[in-house]
Amino acid sequence: MELEKYKNEYNELLKKISYRKGVIELASYLEKHGYFSAPASTKYHLCIEGGLLIHSLNVTKLALKLKEILLPDISEESVILCSLFHDAHKVTDGFGNITYIKNEGYDKEKQPYIWNKDQMNFSGAQKSLLIISKFVDLTQDEMQAIAYHDGPFVPSWEDIKGDPYPLTLLLHFADMWSSWITEKQKDKNSFTKKFIQDL
Fold first, then answer.
1. pTM score > 0.70 for this model?
2. Is the pLDDT of residue 177 over 90?
3. pLDDT greater than 60 at residue 186
4. Of 51, 65, 91, 141, which has the fewest Cβ atoms less than 10 A away?
């Protein structure tokens, strides 16, 4: 895996929002707790070392492309901030416990990682919001986008289903497309690959 290449992409995006108060401290905190080595899931998309970094970059790049078409008035800063760190809870619970640990059991081939039972038991997206909010003052749009980026696939969506903000929908779509299409099928489906390249 070309992890250095992905780190360079991440640093270029981070530079674009580094002027915002708390962003550098947030990034340092997450990097200290394993942002660059964490997987994106236990057994689904990018369940590999560095998977979360790759996933976060995929989401950010797609969200920025969609922003130009669908939401030109929303700041690039908000899109990058929410996209890069929407899954902060996959690094740590905010109390120093890492989220995923390597599975050493008999089924490690099917499920390379397992949830750390010592971490705080709390909704993932809401946990991301809590972690990010410790460092960065978020706007209402940013708060909702991070807290509800899983969309209608989690029960908490009921809270906002009648009034999701545009940034929430943008982040949700970029996250789902990246997870289900880009990261699962880009080498299997030439049409999807071409579509993504043409965006």
1. yes
2. yes
3. no
4. 65
CA distance 38 to 91: 6
Task: Measure the CA angle with vertex 135, ends 132 and 136; round to 5°.
Answer: 75
Q: Which two tokens stand for residue 129?
A: 């919001």
Question: What residues contact 32, with CB distance under 8 A and at least 6 apart?
Answer: none
User: In whole angstroms, what is the distance from residue 167 CA to residue 175 CA?
Assistant: 12
Helix/strand/coil for 102 = strand
pLDDT bucket at 105, cuts 50 / 70 / 90: confident
The rounded Cα 86 to chain-centroid distance in angstroms is 4
88 vs 5, 12, 81, 131, 158, CA distance in Å? Answer: 21, 19, 11, 7, 23
Tokens of 195: 């579509």
Whole-number Å distance between alpha carbons of 31 and 12? 15
**CA 195, chain centre distance (Å):** 22
How many CB atoms are closer than 10 A to CB 47? 17
Domains of the chain by residue range: 3-188
CA 7 to chain CA mean position, Å: 15
Supply the DSSP symbol for 157. G
Q: Which residue has the tokens 């397992």?
A: 114
